[in-house]
């Protein structure tokens, strides 16, 4: 269940559960475990092709590409904002990437931030019966989703009636 909290500005915000207590997190973990387990059994057949493709790539540090893959997952499955992804990637209770790796990730992730804001807004509208103004506040709040005002406005203006 979500908990409503009163912000310093007097507005009410919805406090989100930590990512590791959400269903999507455990679904991703299970998928990753199966994917890693499946690829380990076939690793010998891909060794030569993967080493050739990695030599063609630029010299981007592994931590940067790892952060980028996480950013893509957060954007595609959780519809997070650019700032929200950066904060999750660098958080001590999150992924603990260095700020440089997180910045690389959010700069290179292919995301439609307006679409992400709209998907988050639809969730607030459907699951929590929030008003458009409350949704806009939640999307832009520092204790909320951290979308830009323009992204939040786009989302609220495109909500289904």
TrEMBL record:
Coiled coil: none annotated. Signal peptide: none annotated. The keyword Protease does not apply. The keyword Transmembrane applies. The chain crosses the membrane at residues 23-41. Keywords: Membrane, Transmembrane, Transmembrane helix. It comes from the Bacteria. Residues 64-109, 112-159 form the Putative host cell surface-exposed lipoprotein Ltp-like HTH region domain. This is Putative host cell surface-exposed lipoprotein Ltp-like HTH region domain-containing protein. It comes from Limosilactobacillus reuteri (Lactobacillus reuteri).
